[in-house]
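Figure-free illustration: sequence to structure, shown twice.
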Amino acid sequence: MEGTMKDKLKFRGPLKHFIRWPLYLSIFLGILNILVYMTDVKAGILVTIGFLIYIMIAVGLQKYHRPMILNDLIAFANQYDVLERRMLEELALPYGIMDMEGRMIWSNKMFSQLTGKDPFYKKNIETIFPEITRDKLPVTGKKETSEISTEFNGRIYRVSMQRVTMKDVVNHAEVLENIENDVSMIAVYLYDETELKEYIQKNEDNKLVVALAYLDNYEEALESVEDVRRSLLIALIDRKITKYFSNFDGLVRKLEKDKYFLIMRQSSLEALKEQRFHILEEVKTVNIGNEMAVTLSIGIGLNGSTYLQNYEYSRTAIEMALGRGGDQVVIKNESNITYFGGKAQQMEKSTRVKARVKAQALKEFISTKDRVVVMGHKITDVDALGAAIGIYRAGKTLGKPVHIVVNDPTTSIRPLMAGYMENPDYEPSMFVDSSQAKELVDNNTVVVVVDTNKPSYTECQDLLYLTKTIVVLDHHRRGNEVIENAVLSYVEPYASSTCEMVAEILQYFYDGLRLRSQEADCIYAGIMIDTNNFTTRAGVRTFEAAAFLRRNGADVTRVRKMLRDNIDSYKARAEAVRSAEIYHECFAIAKCPSEGLESPTVVGAQAANELLNIAGVKASFVLTSYNNEVYISARAIDEVNVQVMMERMGGGGHLNIAGAQVKDTLENTEKMLKDIIEQICQEEEKK
């Protein structure tokens, strides 16, 4: 029987040819024998005798060695399966097999020792590693492999899962047949990456972080202290800052009287984040009789490809911190920006030097170009229109053609615009839409953006890419999105309105500049709207700007008549106030009806102002659905920073006046707003 079986067994592949090569060589010898016969018959006979002896020896050796080789191959084949299984079981890498549902089938010795489970543990792998849920497994037809990082018994493992199709494997067996392609199993491997992760984390922790710290109101604070005590105030502030960062292994060097350069490790920065940069509050506690508390702004740069890039990030961050009003920390890396603090309202500067410098720079840019195009934000409001009118007068004073971009005038600005469109003293091309503006703008055009510093919020974003001369005038705090490459940027969050800033600029722009009463009315109206009739965020310079406009013919009664509401808007505002919900005892949330209203967003903003008059309300939020978007108007008095809340919804603004636009339903937007209020409240409780 054994002999019969061996007779039936045959070699195949390279081994078959290797065994038969002596026979293949005999063909060559036969041909050689024929050639020798053709040369010499006697020599051919001699070669034939040698050829026959070679054939007999080759065949004999093959007959003799073939059974021995077969025996060795059969013995190896019998032991190979055991050897293979033994190698898997003894494999130093934890290895297991599970079905497509994640249920364990078998695991090797290392896997069992690691998990403490039997090699034939039959429960789902999720009972061992909760992170490996069903959606993380390789799915037939979608992904062949899957990887996940998990922590087990204090070690970090990279779990690699490979889907293995069983058709080609099982069909060769005699037990099962016709296995389909979608019958698969999952091989799972565990790679211990604890040390690798530790080294990566250590490398991350030791990365260099560069920071710049500026005292926001250094000069103003010193002015409120006696001369003999000023050096003491400076020394106390220096000591407070140096000691604070030294406790976190940071190096502090003073660059100027109110500027500091900081270097620290990234691990120190994480510790500062956990404390939410308590230094901002500690600096305010330094008081030796100064009437004004000192505030600090910090700009931090990290994760740059070079140390120089980190420094550039920190410079950008400190500019944003100051542009947002100071008293805050801005952290910038390659991909995002994070904010901390920013609760204090920036103090109004008493000096107008900056306004004079910006006015002269604006004059130079307009003088050297052929034309001026002014645009505000989408859904132009009174502040944006008033500021644009001020720039219009500045350009016309220098003899330049000026155009104002307004696409869809709202009911709030139509009465103001009508006074120009019906007046023969103003050219018909004073107001243009986006398509007309694109035809006007070229490299010899100055594009002035007013009342916004976000490119996506402008009336026509394309204009920003059609010219290199862009001027930005705004009073909103800067966010992550800013207009790049502006040749002149004047962003002052302390200003009540952009109209206030423009009124100051006009005073220093040109000696012969004189506003017409109609233009003064528009600018005055912008200040009135943004200050809620001079009750919100109105400072000394606000009233000085209003006085300048009054001297140029602005009439309060005329402005008030232009800004009156129609009955539908008044009813909608009243309905929003009536249906308002008081959330967390101090947040008023209302939905403003928009049906039948030409400018529902304006009504929503007015309703938000009205809700602040209710006792106990610290902040108000009015949601208005308009053009398939939900517009949120947020207002606060002094205790709540609505700007931070709106930034989390993709918007921005000021501490007490902010807004956002969300492409979602009213219900989902309201839920999102409430979730953000919950987060803010929880963060406040942790402090």
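We now fold a second protein in the same way, so the two outputs can be compared directly.
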Amino acid sequence: MCGIVGYVGPRDSQDILVSGLARLEYRGYDSAGIAVIDDGGSLAVRKRSGKLARLREALETDPIGRGTTGIGHTRWATHGGPTDQNAHPHLADDDRLAVIHNGIIENFASLRSELVGEGITFVSDTDTEVAAHLLARAYRESGDLVAAFRAVVDRLEGAFTLLAAHEDHPGLVVGARRNSPLVIGLGEGETFLGSDVAAFVEHTRRALAVGQDEIVAIRPGVVEVTDFAGNAVEPQPFEVSWDAAAADKGGWSSFMAKEVSEEPEAVANTVRGRIQDGEIRVPELEGLDDFFRGIDRVVVLACGTAYYSGLVGKYALEKWARIPVDVELAHEFRYREPIVSESTLVVSISQSGETMDTLMAVKEAARLGAKTLSICNTQGSTIPRESDAVVYTHAGPEVAVASTKAFVAQITALYLLALHVGRVRRSLPDEVSADATEQLAALPEKIQWILDNEQERTEQLAHWMADTRSVLFLGRHVGYPIALEGALKLKEISYIHAEGFAAGELKHGPIALIEPGQPVFVVVPSPRGSITMHQKVISNIEEIRARGARIIAIAEQGDSAVLPSADEVLRIPLASPLFEPLLAVVPLHIFAMGLATAKGLDVDQPRNLAKSVTVE
């Protein structure tokens, strides 16, 4: 989850590193640090626990001399608490070698014991310091930093991206990658490394993807990549499709506020170019059309918010493509001997494309012979490269830890997949396809209507409820995953108890939680879609209202049946049932953000969390 950045070039590396870390802080903010080889040839390190602001203060008080080679790190703690000693970089070889790390070295304990037996003294509680001392020992034997990496990486088990700089080699940063992200930025006479392109996009949009089990050495304007065995590798180039301004707040109070405002654009960008002559056609999928005609099952793999988008997508895939769909938590999939075959499509969903649980599940699915497809928002990331095909969402950078616009873009991409496969399999009547395509194209305007007409009232409601200690969420059919998503957002950024339930489960236990004054959000389905389902949800509302619950209903415009039963009604535009989730979730995102703001919490960087989960 940590953010890492490396730089060699003509500019002052301290400025490059700190600005890169600022763009990567969403990946971890327990501590931060940089190491720079200054113009005098000395390695200087500054690091502090806490957010990046503390490192900035330290650099103002005790600046590093100008240098053109450096590495930087912002941490999400795994081994050892967030202290100055545990912050990266870690030093070895008489403080001449600096190392930073993203991931977990699973066999660190045995390696540490080995090094302690050789007389090495450790000053931190981290697994990273083990790698630093191993690299130092290998470097002393060879005098070659790349050769030292090659000697060490096969001894490390788990997930790691390591970067190192050594006093002996100004103008050189070396990195290695296994099961953890790393990309290269190509500037004019300068070269960058980063956990993702946000680290360097303000300087260049030309990038190279570093593959699994590869070592990279960067010098000003020069890149050398080899595999762990020492064979030369030609990295895959790509162009970053957004610029640095897209990852700035742009005057918004928070990144989350900005990204909620971009939900209409995220949907529009995901659909753009994928409607041709009134039909959904996804060019990235056309190479799999023959396979689609013969598949007998779809398995969706995801975690967190992406998992809830998969639950919504299940309804669309089964309705339009007429294929049975299982949605599984990626971190459970590979540990239970899953059954997939050559006629199974495994769809992975990950905003970052680096979610470690999902990546390992994709690899397991591929090993078992399944066809793999990823839905992802990040170019050059690992999961798309490990998959047979990819549908990018084009939602743009999402910096806030709590996912919002990526969620609606993921659902949109799943709907594109379902409509494309339904057309190929001829399971989707033309008139249904045409109507769904028309509704999909109309969604951005409808989401914008909610932002224009319901946001202020929803935020006001959230401020009134700032002292609430527990909120429940109910939904049926596609409203159930939206209830789960609403609860997760509130937990993530407001730190209060929140749970989502299928409304039909109320009488099977959860109704015991209802007491006078208990706030309950209810996602009310359109009576135009299924009057029976609508009536059942109204009955659910009456059941909990009779026990004193305070009802906040999310219902379509013109639904008067809900008025006598609800204390508050947040309106959404008319849409057919399958498209309501993309509308109903917007007030829930706004509410969670508003309540956290009213409590004075940091909505972008909630405690204990990071944006990209790159460890299992």
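Summary for the second example: The first strand starts at residue 3 and ends at 8.
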